[in-house]
Design a protein that fits this description.
heterodimer; A: mainly alpha; 1 helix; 95% helix; B: two-stranded antiparallel ribbon; 7 helices; 4 strands
C-alpha cells in the first residue's frame, strides 16, 4: 500500500475494533444493568404479591 | 405515608411503568441511530499532517484521518448524563435536609449509584479515545483531573454511607456530602472554557465546533442517553421501594 495512504488511514485501521468495543461495552453495560435490575424487580414484585395475599387472608380470618 | 413511585402515577394519562418502557425503547432507538450516523455518515476528523497530499473520493487529503474521534458521539452524552444525574444527588440532598424524609435520602443514594455507573462508562470510553488519539491512557489535564476528582467523590459518598450505622445521621451526612461533591460537576464541565486544553477542546459553542451531521448525531445520542439514564434511575428506585414495601409487609404480618 502507498505509505502516505497507510499513514492517512493508520488511526482508522488501528482504532476500528476498539471504537466498536467501546460502543459494545457501553450498550452491554447499560442494557445489561437495566435487565439485571428488572429481573430482580420481578422477583420482588412476586414476593409483594405473596405477602399481600397472606395479609388479606389474615385480615379475612380476623374478621 | 406511603412513598409513591412513578409507576403508580400517570403522565398524560399513561402509567409510569409504561413511560419507563417507552423511554427505554426510545433511548435504545436514538442511541442506535446515533451509532449508525456516527459510523457511516459523520465526516472523519483530521489529525496530524502527512508528508504529501492524496486524493480520496475526489477530496484532497493531507492529514491523518481520526476514526477514534467517533467515540465522541457517545462518550460526551454519557459524560453529560453523569453530570445531570449527579445534580439529583444534590437536589434530593437538599430536599432531605429541608424535610428529613427518608424517601429523599433513598432517591439521592440511587441517583449517586446511577452517577457511578455513568462515570465508569465515561472514564472507560474516554480512556480508549485518549489512547488512540494521543497515544497515552491518561493525561493530567484540567477536565480529566476534575472528572477524576468527581469520580473519587462519588465513591467516597458510598464509603461515607457504609461507615455510619445510625440511619438519620447517615442520611444527613450523605446529603451534605452529596451537595458539596456535586460542586465539582459544573467545574469539570466548564473548566475547558477557563483553561484551554487540546485533549478537551470546546466543541459545544455557538458559531462552530460541530457540522450539521455531527451535531445531529451528537444530539440524538445525547437525548437517547438521557432517556436511558432516567430509565436506570426509575427501575432502581422501583426496586428500592419494592424492598421497603416487603419489609413493611413482613413487619405487619409479624406484628
Amino acid at each position: 500500500m502507498d505509505p502516505i495512504l497507510s499513514e492517512i488511514y493508520r488511526n482508522v485501521i488501528n482504532a476500528v475494533p476498539y471504537v466498536l468495543a467501546a460502543y459494545a461495552l457501553l450498550w452491554l453495560g447499560l442494557f445489561g444493568y437495566i435487565s439485571f435490575v428488572l429481573r430482580r424487580l420481578g422477583g420482588l414484585e412476586k414476593q409483594i404479591s405473596v405477602l399481600e395475599s397472606a395479609m388479606a387472608r389474615r385480615d379475612a380470618a380476623a374478621k | 405515608m406511603t412513598d409513591t413511585t412513578v409507576s403508580q402515577r400517570r403522565f398524560l394519562g399513561i402509567p409510569g411503568n409504561t413511560w419507563t418502557l417507552i423511554l427505554l425503547g426510545l433511548g435504545a432507538v436514538l442511541t442506535t441511530i446515533d451509532f449508525v450516523l456516527a459510523f457511516f455518515y459523520t465526516p472523519l476528523v483530521v489529525g496530524a499532517q502527512v508528508a504529501e497530499t492524496r486524493i480520496i473520493n475526489g477530496i484532497a487529503v493531507s492529514n491523518q484521518l481520526l476514526f477514534s474521534q467517533k467515540i465522541f458521539y457517545f462518550h460526551v452524552p454519557v459524560a453529560i448524563g453523569s453530570f445531570l444525574i449527579f445534580f439529583f444527588t444534590a437536589y434530593y440532598g437538599v430536599r432531605f435536609l429541608m424535610t428529613k424524609q427518608k424517601k429523599y435520602d433513598t432517591r439521592a443514594r440511587i441517583a449517586t449509584e446511577v452517577t457511578l455507573l455513568f462515570v465508569i462508562l465515561t472514564l472507560i470510553t474516554g480512556d480508549i479515545w485518549t489512547r488512540f488519539e494521543w497515544g497515552v491512557w491518561w493525561v493530567w489535564e484540567p477536565r480529566l483531573t476534575t472528572y477524576f476528582i468527581m469520580t473519587l467523590l462519588v465513591v467516597a459518598y458510598f464509603v461515607l454511607r457504609s461507615s455510619i450505622e445510625d440511619e438519620e445521621r447517615r442520611a444527613t451526612y450523605a446529603a451534605v456530602f452529596g451537595i458539596i461533591a456535586f460542586l465539582d460537576a459544573p467545574i469539570s464541565f466548564a473548566i475547558t472554557r477557563l483553561i484551554p486544553s487540546s485533549v478537551h477542546p470546546v466543541v459545544l459553542r455557538s458559531g462552530g465546533g460541530l457540522t450539521g451531521m455531527q451535531l445531529l448525531a451528537f444530539l440524538l445520542g445525547l437525548f437517547g442517553m438521557l432517556m436511558l439514564a432516567w430509565v436506570v434511575y426509575q427501575v432502581r428506585l422501583r426496586e428500592e421501594l419494592a424492598r421497603e414495601r416487603i419489609e413493611g409487609l413482613k413487619a405487619a404480618l409479624e406484628g
